[in-house]
């Protein structure tokens, strides 16, 4: 991408929206399994991704595997648009005389993209995680108390989590609207951005790894520097770079998931910041716990970013805008 190429925000929004909608629809059940596997502590409810998906399908039905998808589908368009457009912008900003970027500059561009996207990513994942983990919590409570036991209140129900208090609401399926409203009412905008710091710690390294790796792999499919790579090559490049980056930052993703989860099951640890969370996971579950959901995460991110880069390099947004003009 040359330094004179103008960034079209509407086109990036369309590209991000198309890629996000297609990607999320395809891989969301695996993302749900990832969240549930990362959140379970000790002797968990699920033994792995397949077991989680089978149990979710049996207990919650097909649509149960898409719990929280509406939040993702709503916010994934601006998230992907910001991430891809920001990387494009920073790459152009850091380029000199249209020369190829050095690896350090590519990493800096990725860092900028990762920092920009958390404006949308942090609240999106905050709401999504609550919806995804509700089913696991219900099974966990029943497992702890016995299948015939009544629902129990969550351990240490804090006053700043209004929608979790009381036994009657323990198994009530949450709503993203209710969660967002209660958080805004009790904590203000800060409540929706809980875990912002750890989200930055995850997304900035991810982008530092992903974008330079993608750019260099994608170059192999370009016959000339000004020519776009074929769709399939861009797709594979996005998949490879996405899976590598996803696995690399999985420990940070585990921390983010645990910190952003508002509800905790009976006997599960609660956390007071990144350091406290990391210490308790290491002490109570061992170092292997930091890689929980790594396989699921790779399976989610690989096609998601493969599709995103394929759509981005094809230029569906540019084509649509050109057609109407």
Summarize the structure.
It comes from Gopherus agassizii (Agassiz's desert tortoise). Solcar repeats lie at residues 7-93, 101-220, 229-318. It is built from twelve helices and no strands.
How many beta-strand elements? 0
Can you name the CATH architecture?
Alpha/alpha barrel
Largest sheet: none
Average residue-wise pLDDT:
84
End-to-end Cα distance: 23 Å
The helical percent reads 55-70%
CATH hierarchy, class? Mainly Alpha
* Domain module count: 1
The helix count comes to 12
**CATH level-4 homologous superfamily:** Mitochondrial carrier domain
Q: What fraction of the residues are assigned to beta strands by DSSP?
A: under 5%
Structural class: mainly alpha
Order of helices and strands: HHHHHHHHHHHH
Q: What low-confidence regions span 5 or more consecutive residues with pLDDT below 50? A: 148-170
Rg over alpha carbons: 21 Å
What is the general shape?
globular
Task: Write the CATH fold name.
Answer: Mitochondrial carrier fold
């Amino acid at each position: 991408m040359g330094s004179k190429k103008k960034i079209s925000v509407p086109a990036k929004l369309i590209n991000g929206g198309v890629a996000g909608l297609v990607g999320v629809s395809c891989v969301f059940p695996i993302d749900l399994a990832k969240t549930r596997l990362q959140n379970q502590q000790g002797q968990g409810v699920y033994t792995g991704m397949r077991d989680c998906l089978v149990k979710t399908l049996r207990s919650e039905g097909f649509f149960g595997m898409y719990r929280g998808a509406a939040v993702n589908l709503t916010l994934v368009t601006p998230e992907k648009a910001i991430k891809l457009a920001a990387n494009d912008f920073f790459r152009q900003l850091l380029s000199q005389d249209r020369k190829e970027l050095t690896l350090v500059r590519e990493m800096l561009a990725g860092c900028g993209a990762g920092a920009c996207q958390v404006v949308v990513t942090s609240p999106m994942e905050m709401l999504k995680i609550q919806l995804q983990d509700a089913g696991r919590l219900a099974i966990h409570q029943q497992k702890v108390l016995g299948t015939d036991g009544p629902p129990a209140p969550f351990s240490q129900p804090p006053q700043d989590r209004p929608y979790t208090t009381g036994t009657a609401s323990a198994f009530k399926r949450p709503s993203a609207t209710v969660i967002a409203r209660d958080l805004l009412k009790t904590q203000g905008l800060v409540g929706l951005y809980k875990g912002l710091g750890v989200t930055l710690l995850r997304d900035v390294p991810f982008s530092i790894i992903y974008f330079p790796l993608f750019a260099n792999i994608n170059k192999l499919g370009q016959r000339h520097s000004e020519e776009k790579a074929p769709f399939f090559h861009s797709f594979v490049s996005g998949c490879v770079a996405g899976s590598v980056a996803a696995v690399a930052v999985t420990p940070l993703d585990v921390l983010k998931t645990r910190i952003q989860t508002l509800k905790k099951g009976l006997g599960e640890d609660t956390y007071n910041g990144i350091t406290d969370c990391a210490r308790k996971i290491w002490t109570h579950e061992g170092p292997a716990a930091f890689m929980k959901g790594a396989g699921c995460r790779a399976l989610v991110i690989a096609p998601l970013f493969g599709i995103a880069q394929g759509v981005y390099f094809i230029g569906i947004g540019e084509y649509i805008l050109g057609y109407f003009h």
